[in-house]
Amino acid sequence: MKIGASALAGIEKTLETTLEFIENLGLEYVELVHQFPSENIDPNILESYNLKYSIHAPFMDVNIATLQHKSRINSIDQIKDSIDFANKIDAEAVVVHPGLASFLVNKYFLDDVYKVAKESIKEIGEYGKDSGILTTIENMPNFESMIYQDMDDLNDLLVSLDMPMTLDIGHANHVGYSPEEMYFDSIKHVHAHDNFGDDDSHLALGEGSIDLNTIITTLEKNNYDGIYIIEVNDFDSIKKSYEYMKNNFKI
Fold first, then answer.
1. What is the pLDDT at residue 103?
2. 5, 119, 179, 186: which has the fewest C-beta neighbours closer than 10 Å?
3. Do residues 116 and 124 lie in contact, with contact meaning Cβ atoms separated by under 8 Å?
4. Is the pLDDT assigned to residue 104 strictly greater than 90?
5. Is the pLDDT of residue 155 over 90?
6. Sign, Cα dihedral of 175, 11, 85, 188
């Protein structure tokens, strides 16, 4: 199994501090969050660690599903910058959020949002393929502004575009998917964290109510060969989650 952790857990610390902590735990991968405060990452810093990388494209102030044309183009360009950076550092995957629908847009123009999101995702997917980078779209949690909370709809879109999915286990549980319903052949990257179904709380693995064993066992039985990224809130939760993985699976 390929296991790593998201640098999001150290968002208030220096990137070097986060990378050192994850490396010292013995994890193989780090998912870099390519936005403020790590919008401009020096590749030379990354090379000084015995780590491999994936990239989470920016999602703060970025919306590839916005109906504002100039904002959408800018958002797509930021995602493409992340794909270019992934290429530069030989990252194994890029994770992209499918976009948002603000209050008025959600009320009156939701069909237009999904149409624009499809166009944006298609453009980003083609750019990723041309760049040789695995560019994935992540399923979203149960918040009103989030689109593609429905993993079946997301999977249908991605299959039609020949693109891969990032399965976010916590998001899927928050929406109400059972462990047996979370598997799709399109899944090529995984975000792992726990919750009790009432919030997207990003708890350490084993600290919520998700049947993680069933989900991960299903992925392994279907020859999943992507990375499991532990995406939790702090360093202690990374450590607890890695211990959970070691205690429950063949690592």
1. 85
2. 119
3. no
4. no
5. yes
6. negative
Inform me whether the pLDDT recorded for 250 exceeds 80: no
Q: What does the alpha-carbon distance between residue 202 and residue 218 come to, in Å, rounded to a whole number?
A: 21
DSSP string, 9-34: GGTTS-HHHHHHHHHHHT--EEEEE-
Do 188 and 226 form a contact (C-beta atoms < 8 A)?
Answer: yes
- Its sign, for the CA torsion 99, 102, 105, 110, is positive
DSSP notation for 146-210: BS---HHHHHHHHHHHT--EEEEHHHHHHHT--GGGS--TTEEEEEE-B--SSS---BPTTSSS-
0.90 surpassed by pTM: yes
Higher pLDDT among residues 240 and 106, named by residue:
240
Q: How are the residues of the chain apportioned to helix, strand and coil, as percentages rounded to the nearest 5?
A: 45, 15, 40
Q: What is the pLDDT of residue 102?
A: 87
Q: Which amino acid is at 5?
A: A
Tell me the one-letter amino acid at 36. F
Strand 165-168 relative to strand 135-138: parallel, antiparallel, unpaired?
parallel
DSSP state letter for 6: E
Burial of 18: CB neighbours in 10 Å, binned 0-12, 13-18, 19+: buried
CA nearest to 114, candidates 164, 159, 64: 64
Provide the b/e sequence for 194-205 (b: ≥16 CB within 10 Å): bbeeeebbbbbb
What does the pLDDT look like over 33-82, one tens digit per residue? 999 999 999 999 999 999 999 999 999 999 999 999 999 999 999 999 99
Residues 6+ apart with CB under 8 A from 80: 124, 127
Residue type, 244: Y
